[in-house]
Amino acid sequence: MKDNIVVRITDIKRTYYMGKVEVNALRGITLHIARGEFVSIMGPSGCGKSTLMHILGCLDRPTSGDVKLDEVDVDELDDNDLAEIRNKKVGFVFQTFNLLPKLNAIENVELPLIYAGVGFEERRRKAAALLETVGLKERMYHKPSELSGGQSQRVAIARSLANDPSIILADEPTGNLDSKSGEEIIRLFKELNHKGITLIIVTHDQEIADHSKRIVRLKDGLVVSDESVK
Amino acid sequence: MINLAEPLKIAYSSIISNRLRSLLTTMGVIIGVAAVITLVSMGEGAKSYIMDQVGSWGVGSNSITIQPGEENSHTIEMNMTYADAQALRSKVNNLQYLMTEFVGRGRVNYGKKEYKPGYTLGVSADYPFAYKQGAAEGRFFSHAEDAGRKRVAIIGKTVARNLFGEFSPLGENVKINGVGFKVIGVLEEKGTMLTYDMDDMVLIPSTLSPLVLGTNKIWEMFMTVNSEDQVPQAVQEIKKILIARHKKEDFHIHTQQGLIDIINNILNAMTGIVSAIAAISLLVGGIGIMNIMLVAVTERTREIGIRKAIGAKQRDIFFQFVFESVLITMSGAVIGITVGTLAAWGIMDWLKMSAVIAWGAVYMACLVAFLVGTFFGVYPAMRASKLDPVEALRFEA
Predict the structure, then answer these.
(1) Smallest Cα distance from B354 to chain A, Å
(2) Residue A138 DSSP label
(3) Chain A within 8 Å of B378 (Cβ-Cβ)?
(4) Is the pTM of this model over 0.95?
């Protein structure tokens, strides 16, 4: 029987040293996220939400505590295994899109497939299908500089879906967009969630959080509230 | 399973999108490789030119030259005589031709005209066979005429032109150093070899050398044996015979192999110096490449962060940057080889010689460029592959 909990983090702490100053970014967070959830992580800047997202996305490791992603115990993995987890189980959507400027839309979407070792024809086919899903069929061969912000973010979402990940992590995905484009992106996220994709959005925008099904609020490296949206 | 084709493609497209910078990066390699290829191609060309010249002079690989005086001696003792030549003629095995050569300055008078040829040589009748240079007009003198001290002369084209102009000199009477001769032949034209005009000479029977040139000492003996591999044995026999006659080794023997060895030694020394310069140039070029690669890693920190976030492993990033360095360096080598070969052709054409593509140097340049690219690319690539993805993503260029 497969565990329905896709993210299971237990009492994680993360401490940085900025020079000689100790910074306790996370001070003991426990969080379970089930398959198919749509969770917003909120909080003021400096509350540790970016750090939490890096740990959830296997870009970073906690100083202590357990991280289990899709039943894999992340603590025991080396850097290369983490890269593979990021490739196969996590899809990132960033505030600044983070597309490679020299590649066109379809090549950007293909990148995770390249690192997964998928052959050229297969990944072309899949990337084209994903771009069609996000409504960019006509813009496949455009460079990021020829795309609007909303279009760029949709390319990034297509890229995050490339390897059918267990979770999509979005860090302020509408932060660099005008309100109309932002609404379109949120609508796209809701559609994806409706198809059963697990979404975790980091945001400080209450309006966006209201579209999700559950809101987790952080303050000073601790969870202060965790409730469902009516 | 490491897929190397993908990092190679990524490296290639990165170089293509930075054409000018890539070209400037590898300029050190281009110049180093071009210099080596030019000089080595010219050296090879010069070598084959010299070999051709030597060959056209009639000096084949089966020839042996005997000169008086000890090897490396500064004072030449002229002590070989006609009798020595006769002894060799009768005792050396496999002998084809033996030609004695007496050298002197001559003054040729025809009527009121006077001309001083570059060389006046007393030679034996084997001359046309030994040097593969016969008479273009008329004929050469025979052994009987040589032995009989007949006053007959063969003149070179330059001499003929100076004394007789457009008229045929055959059958004309001339005086060489005051002794009357009849011109019986004009030598085939040889042109210039290593700046000497080979047509500016007069040949007379060797037996008349004491009378005309005032010497009975042989300047040089030139002989050929039936085949190349009989040369070493013949050399031993000549030494034995001459030492028995002179009681000491007061002569030296050159074979073609010796000459080829000398030319090769000179060219190898040149190649060595050129290679040393090239090595320094490639080292400097390599450091330049490493420098630019380090800049590129810093500049593309964010790209590296993105690639890592979406699943690139350390080795994917590592190979991407190493391949970029190797590709840039190899492109430099290919450009350098092309430029160097064209330059060599241009220069050699201008010198009326032809360059030879130095394949050895071409392979070497490719190999060295590969090693330089790898060596100087590894450190920047390691730096790139070890970047922390969180830090890298936060990086603002």
Answers:
(1) 46
(2) G
(3) no
(4) no
Q: How far B276 CA lies from chain A's nearest CA (Å)?
A: 41
State the residue for tokens 């690669």: B293
Q: Which domains, and CATH codes, for chain A?
A: 5-228 (3.40.50.300)
| Cβ neighbours of B315 in A, within 8 Å | 80
Contact A98 B390 (CB under 8 A): no
B310–A contact, CB cutoff 8 A: yes
Compute the nearest-CA separation of B302 from chain A (Å). Answer: 8
Cβ–Cβ under 8 Å, residues B375 and B286? yes
Q: How many CA within 13 A on the CB side of residue B6?
A: 23
DSSP annotation string for B96-160: EEEEEEEEE---EEETTEEE--SEEEEE-TTHHHHTT--EEEE-PPPHHHHHTT--EEEE-HHHH
> Chains A, B: CB contacts under 8 A, how many?
59
Helix (H) or strand (E) holding B204: strand B201-205
- Tokens, residue B148: 């009989």
Rg (CA), chain B: 33
The backbone torsions φ and ψ at residue A61, rounded to the nearest 5 degrees and listed phi first, read -120, 150
Q: List the one residue out of B199, B212, B215, B200 whose CA is nearest residue B118.
A: B200
Q: Is the pLDDT of residue B112 over 90?
A: no
| Distance between CA atoms of residues B349 and B352, nearest Å | 5
Q: Sketch the domain layout of chain B as residue ranges.
A: 5-54+261-394, 78-249
When CB atoms are compared, the residue of A54, A84, A117 closest to B1 is A117
Inter-chain residue contact B310 with A112, CB threshold 8 Å: yes
- Answer whether residue B339 shows pLDDT above 90: yes
Mutate to test the interface with A, among B4, B310, B382 (most CBs of A within 10 A): B310
Find tokens 């020829």 and name the residue: A146
The answer to whether residue B389 neighbours chain A at the CB level (below 8 Å) is yes
B275-289: pLDDT as tens digits: 788 888 888 888 989
